[in-house]
TrEMBL record:
<dbReference type="InterPro" id="IPR006620">
    <property type="entry name" value="Pro_4_hyd_alph"/>
</dbReference>
<dbReference type="GO" id="GO:0031418">
    <property type="term" value="F:L-ascorbic acid binding"/>
</dbReference>
<keyword id="KW-0408">Iron</keyword>
<protein>
    <submittedName>
        <fullName>2OG-Fe(II) oxygenase</fullName>
    </submittedName>
</protein>
<keyword id="KW-0479">Metal-binding</keyword>
<dbReference type="InterPro" id="IPR005123">
    <property type="entry name" value="Oxoglu/Fe-dep_dioxygenase_dom"/>
</dbReference>
<dbReference type="GO" id="GO:0008198">
    <property type="term" value="F:ferrous iron binding"/>
</dbReference>
<dbReference type="InterPro" id="IPR051559">
    <property type="entry name" value="HIF_prolyl_hydroxylases"/>
</dbReference>
<feature type="domain" description="Fe2OG dioxygenase">
    <location>
        <begin position="107"/>
        <end position="210"/>
    </location>
</feature>
<keyword id="KW-0223">Dioxygenase</keyword>
<dbReference type="GO" id="GO:0071456">
    <property type="term" value="P:cellular response to hypoxia"/>
</dbReference>
<dbReference type="Pfam" id="PF13640">
    <property type="entry name" value="2OG-FeII_Oxy_3"/>
</dbReference>
<keyword id="KW-0847">Vitamin C</keyword>
<dbReference type="GO" id="GO:0031543">
    <property type="term" value="F:peptidyl-proline dioxygenase activity"/>
</dbReference>
<dbReference type="InterPro" id="IPR044862">
    <property type="entry name" value="Pro_4_hyd_alph_FE2OG_OXY"/>
</dbReference>
<keyword id="KW-0560">Oxidoreductase</keyword>
Length: 222
């Protein structure tokens, strides 16, 4: 008898790539519901909540290197960088690698790396309006957010607000942080923020990066 082989649904819905590329070209951002496989969301959410319960997360800051600061008045989440240590992480990161290849093929972006971290927002936490690129080192090209929390209540808060690139005061989308939703946008030009959450909020924030250097020194991830 031939042994059975475990099969998995696609980590991202196959139609996502086409819709995502079209939206990035037309408006600079994409949001899709029920995009990430819900069983994968459940596994990732369980891993993140376990880390949160056992002090396995680090307080998130702004900037990096010597300019890295903890500013709870700006950003209140806690994070853990994905490192492929679990099957769920590997499956998610493999899906992002496939998306990276699709983006390079369609848009000739020269993306060479993807970095991502879990993000846990406790009740009351938020992240003020910002863009994701670093001044002088614009190596983050496309940002992604995969949402993990199931059954998000209508009064839960915690939405990500996306603003118009030419008018940062004009709201163009509000993303409910419910499991399966996937958002993607241009890192340098799309302002966004996370509104105060009333419930524990879980997600994966990630960035497709282009090689960058400053003064002949390679600019590393993170």
């Amino acid at each position: 008898m031939t042994p059975s082989v475990a099969t998995f649904s696609p980590a991202l819905q196959p139609a996502t790539q086409v819709a995502l590329v079209d939206a990035l070209v037309e408006q600079g951002w994409y949001v899709g519901r029920e995009v990430i496989d819900l069983e994968l969301c459940e596994a990732l959410n369980h891993e993140l909540l376990h880390r949160a319960a056992y002090n396995g997360l680090d307080e998130a800051g702004i900037g990096r290197g010597q300019q890295h600061l903890l500013r709870k008045d700006i950003r209140g989440d806690a994070i853990h960088w994905l490192d492929r240590e679990s099957a769920a992480q590997r499956r998610y990161l493999d899906a992002m690698r496939e998306l990276q290849q699709a983006l390079n093929h369609a848009l000739f972006l020269g993306l060479f790396e993807y970095e991502a971290h879990f993000a846990h927002y406790p009740p009351g936490a938020f992240y003020q309006r910002h863009v994701d690129s670093f001044r002088g080192r614009a190596n983050r090209v496309i940002s992604t957010v995969g949402y993990l929390t199931p059954d998000w209540p209508s009064d839960g808060g915690g939405e990500m607000v996306i603003y118009h690139p030419d008018d940062p005061s004009q709201e163009v989308a509000r993303v409910i942080p419910e499991a399966g939703t996937f958002a993607c946008f241009l890192s340098e030009t799309i302002p966004h923020e996370v509104l105060p959450t009333r419930c524990p909020r879980t997600s994966i924030a990630g960035w497709f990066r282009r090689n960058a250097s400053l003064g002949g020194v390679l600019d590393p991830a993170r």
